[in-house]
Design a protein that fits this description.
elongated, mainly beta, about 120 residues, about 60% strand
């Protein structure tokens, strides 16, 4: 199966920056879309950034112009570059990847989630 390992979270001051990483490993697979979500205590999980297999990107209005999502296909890794961080960006950030498992009679679609990484922005 596909496993995701996240890293890069931490504590920063408002206006600072962080880069989150999410690396996929495990079964033989092909990744299509990759997403970053975040969830603050007492709030619903929200989509903050998306990148398709073709490289097109979409962002939540609240992070547009400050966050950048990118991917390294050779490393099966997706990144989230976060600049000009605000206290309201404080949340646990989760990556999600969707694709297909290979090496079977029929290809099998999958959706995998990372363990989450804490981002805390102080005022």
């Amino acid at each position: 199966q596909v496993q995701l390992v996240e890293s890069g979270g931490g504590l920063v001051q408002a206006g600072g920056s962080l880069r989150l990483s999410c690396a996929a490993s495990g079964s033989t697979f092909s990744i299509n879309a990759m997403d970053w979500y975040r969830q603050a205590p007492g709030k619903q999980r929200e989509l903050v950034a998306h990148i398709s297999s073709g490289g097109s990107t979409n962002y939540a209005d609240s992070v547009k112009g400050r966050f950048t999502i990118s991917r390294d296909n050779a490393k099966n890794t997706v990144y989230l570059h976060m600049n000009s961080l605000k206290p309201e960006d404080t949340a646990v950030y989760y990556c999600n990847v969707r694709g297909v498992l290979l090496g079977r009679v029929d290809t099998t679609p999958f959706s995998a989630w990372g363990q989450g990484t804490q981002v805390t922005v102080s005022s």
